[in-house]
Design a protein that fits this description.
With 827 residues, this protein is an alpha+beta fold. It is built from 23 helices and 9 strands. 67% of the residues lie in helices and 8% in strands. The two termini are 63 Å apart.
Length: 827
């Protein structure tokens, strides 16, 4: 064995493994840091907003007692107290309802009049756009601008607080630093362990002969195991930093409320006997979900006022009924603010007279960590599937690098192996659809954001046009791909399809309007059709075509579910166009994967088929084989049994697929306020049906003589899926509908091909052309699905559409079964 080949194999395996590891860990870092950034920002800024609302309630009381906002006595001191009383507030401004600046602390600069006018106008636009709720904080060059409305007979004005970014971004910055160290340590550990293990796997001829099988286990154990360990470490870090962010918010609230109590103490008010302090604490707890309780305590721990319920936390103790609450088991989840008596003399020290304690709700922290854990679990599933496909690619590289030695297993383990082309097409299919389906869960949502009136059509119809245009383009590609492949070879058609798919996704990433998005989906759909047909033709050339097709489709749907889930999670943190750009870059790597498995002797040679190769063995209704008949003619298009299949099952099932799964489902879930990542996980269920149940259903169909019965079952399952969606009241019911639709498609894909190829008229075109033509005709239903569902929802409600279409599809499936039996040829 040539030593250089073994060394190249080890280096390639090490580099590819580290690349996949760095890619998946980088994705996890992006996911967790973006999630923490959003949680920390929202939590801390909501603390500042709560301080502003507390200040606004005091101003509103003065307005109700007859004070005027533009001549409010003591307002300058009140704003100064708000600014200095809470750490992190750089400046405070107060505007009237017209956007005119009335007060500012610190005082506005002499040359800042234009900036103040611009800021006031921008604030007023936000209040106009958010009439029902206060606008969200917006990012500024120096931090964040938090707006709090002042209500008195309508909008009387607002308070604008400029919050320093350092206070808000500290948690995310530190988390990124620790995550980077953890990621570097993980990669170094793999880089040290993997070479030694690879040396054992390639050290002897016997070990190299089993390399195609042992590589998968190696990657799962070493790379997958380190990813799992990294995810656990990241979750532990995340838990600590989420608690830190919640503590920061509680400290802000404690500072704001504590200053009010200290003001009363300084005035000589006996706070212990003061009425209304319980209501103030109760309001504080009610306004902030991170708090489960609040208490005002004397220096010896005796509660003077309490609010909150122990049922909101995980622990049984609570300050309202436990004088020794400061020593309770959950004291670590509390924020304490000492309240002091201070004197005008600088020679007298401040004296603590009571303590304000805010108890954090651990369930809020747990819920936020759990959400990230679910996302990272999904990411682990994606990475494990990616590792399995990487093992297939490395096995192919090993066979090509080590030659006959690696391709000859020991006699006790000998078994037929897929050809190079089929293995490469599986990896290529995984990579292509990993990138292509990153946008599957949000294309209608992106179309809705880019909506503009078009051709006088309603909005719901227009936003379905990108999917319909994509399906039309894919249907054209499927129709012409057979002729192109015969002329140029499937390798070139695959490369053209991958390039077109990437171009369409990149164009979608640059889309600024709906026409551009439609053009992008047309380009991507054409590439999709070419890749899909080239993948099938590439495996049909070989002896084990059935096993090759099953392997290719397993890779395709693995990539699809990974792409849909990854794209949905990225879409929660990046713009939709950016996710499409990422998908476009990923699809380009499919070209390299397929080139790895290319047979140099026939890579660019047009495929030549003997005249007898297109002969089709037909069957009668009972499954009895008939004599092969030469190909040629257009009898298939005139065959009434083909029309029965197409009109009663093929097109209705296709309408359900694109109309419900690709168009209506994302809109339904988005309207139900379902997170984008959960939408992606729902789409994963559809692909998992093909990976898990698809092979079993395929074997069942092969063993059963009555193939049309399975077409009837496919139609019934499609209709039932819509009925389940119509009656669903939560995510579980919707998931059941997606599973039913996935099982329907698992049955329809092989059963329709077996039934159409069993017709006597199929002899006129041959097996490949018959399959290509029928798939192109089925595209009519996929094209019409989004448009039909969009138009129907304009006339009827969503639930009514699902009920009507679901019942119709079930009825057509039963009609097909009866018509097929009646039209069976007589023996």
């Amino acid at each position: 064995m040539h030593i250089g080949a073994i060394q190249r194999l080890r280096v390639n395996t090490l580099l590819l493994s580290l690349g996949v590891l760095a890619l998946t860990l980088g994705f996890n870092v992006l996911l967790s840091s973006s999630t923490l950034d959003g949680l920390a920002t929202d939590s801390i800024l909501s603390g500042y907003r709560s301080c502003g609302e507390h200040f606004a309630r005091g101003v509103e009381r003065g307005l109700r007692f007859g004070k005027f906002l533009n001549a409010y006595a003591g307002m300058d001191d009140m704003l100064a107290e708000l600014r200095h009383g809470v750490q992190g507030i750089d400046s405070v401004q107060l505007f009237d309802a017209k956007g005119e600046l009335l007060y500012a602390r610190p005082d506005s600069r002499p040359d800042s009049g234009v900036d103040d006018l611009r800021a006031g106008a921008e604030d007023l636009k936000q209040f106009s756009a958010h009439a029902e709720a206060p606008p969200k904080a917006r990012k500024t060059p120096t931090g964040y601008r938090v707006l709090v409305p002042l209500q008195h007979n309508g909008l009387a004005g607002w308070v604008a607080m400029e919050v320093a970014s350092a206070q808000v971004d500290a948690a995310t910055r530190d988390f990124l630093r620790w995550s980077g160290f953890l990621m570097l340590a993980t990669c170094l550990a793999v880089a040290l362990i993997l070479p030694g293990w690879l040396g054992l796997l390639t050290g002897t001829a016997e070990a190299r002969a089993r390399l195609h099988a042992t590589l998968g286990r190696l990657l799962l154990v070493v790379v997958g195991g380190t990813q799992l360990a990294y995810s656990c470490g990241t979750l532990a870090l995340f838990d600590g930093f989420v608690e830190r962010a919640v503590r920061t918010k509680a400290a802000i609230l404690a500072q704001s409320v504590g200053r009010d109590f200290e003001y009363l103490i300084h005035k000589g008010v006996d706070v212990a006997q003061l009425k209304g302090k319980e209501q103030l604490l109760a309001q504080l707890v009610a306004d902030n979900e991170e708090l489960r309780g609040a208490a005002l305590l004397s220096p010896d721990g005796v509660p003077l006022a309490t609010a909150g319920s122990p049922s909101r936390g995980r622990h049984a103790s609570d300050v309202s009924d436990a004088p020794d609450a400061p020593d309770a088991p959950d004291a670590a989840l509390s924020v304490r603010e000492p309240l002091d008596r201070y004197w005008p003399s600088r020679f007298r020290q401040r004296q603590e007279v009571m303590e304000l304690r805010l108890d954090l709700d651990p369930q809020v922290i747990t819920a936020r960590v759990t959400k990230l854990a679910v996302d990272m679990g999904t990411s682990l599933v994606i990475s494990f599937l990616l590792l399995l496909e990487l093992a297939k690619l490395l096995g192919l590289i090993a066979q090509r690098s080590l030659g006959a030695e690696a391709g000859t297993p020991p006699p006790d383990q000998a078994r037929p192996r897929l050809p190079h082309a089929a293995q490469a097409l599986r990896v290529g299919g995984f990579v292509f659809f990993l990138g292509y389906d990153m946008g599957i869960s949000f294309i209608p949502l992106l179309a809705r954001t880019l909506y503009q009136p078009l051709w006088g059509l309603s909005e719901k119809v227009v936003i379905g046009l990108p999917i319909s245009a994509e399906m039309v383009s894919a249907g054209v590609a499927l129709l012409v791909s057979g002729s192109f492949t015969q002329r140029y070879g499937w390798h070139r058609i695959y490369m053209l399809g991958a390039a077109a798919g990437a171009a369409g996704l990149l164009l979608g990433g640059m889309a600024t309007g709906l026409p551009m998005l439609i053009l992008a989906r047309i380009t991507a759909g054409f590439g999709f059709g070419l890749v899909l047909m080239a993948s099938q033709i590439g495996t049909l050339e070989h002896e084990r075509a059935g096993a090759g097709l099953a392997s290719v489709f397993a890779g395709i749907f693995s990539g699809s579910i990974c792409g849909s889930a990854a794209g949905a999670m990225l879409a929660e943190h990046l713009p939709y166009q950016s996710v499409l750009t990422v998908g476009g870059v990923v699809t380009l790597f499919a070209m390299r994967a397929v080139l790895t498995g290319r047979d140099r002797a026939t890579a660019h040679a047009p495929r030549t088929t003997p005249p007898t190769a297109n002969a089709v063995t037909t069957e009668d209704a009972a499954g009895t084989a008939r004599t092969p008949i030469p190909s040629g003619g257009m009898a298939l298009l005139k065959d009434p049994r083909m029309h029965l299949m197409l009109l009663l099952v093929g097109i209705p099932v296709a309408v359900c697929l694109t109309g419900f799964l690709h168009y209506l489902l994302p809109l339904m879930l988005a309207n139900a306020k379902v997170d984008q990542s959960d939408i992606g996980r729902v789409f994963m269920l559809y692909g998992l049906c093909f990976i898990t149940a698809g092979p079993l259903l395929g074997k069942w169909i092969d063993r059963t003589a009555d193939k049309p019965l399975f077409l009837t079952l496919a139609g019934l399952l499609s209709g039932v899926s819509l009925l389940l969606a119509a009656s669903a009241t939560g995510l579980a019911g919707t998931s059941a509908a997606v599973v039913a639709l996935g099982l329907s498609q698992c049955i329809a894909a092989p059963a329709s091909m077996l039934c159409i190829l069993a017709l006597r008229s199929a002899r006129e075109l041959g097996r490949e052309k018959t399959a290509s033509l029928y798939r192109a005709l089925e595209r009519v239903g996929q094209v019409a699905g989004p448009v039909l569902f969009g138009a129907a929802t304009v006339v009827m409600g969503t639930t009514q559409v699902l009920l009507v279409v679901g019942g119709t599809v079930c009825t057509l499936a039963l009609a097909f079964q009866a018509a097929w039996r009646l039209s069976a040829p007589r023996s």
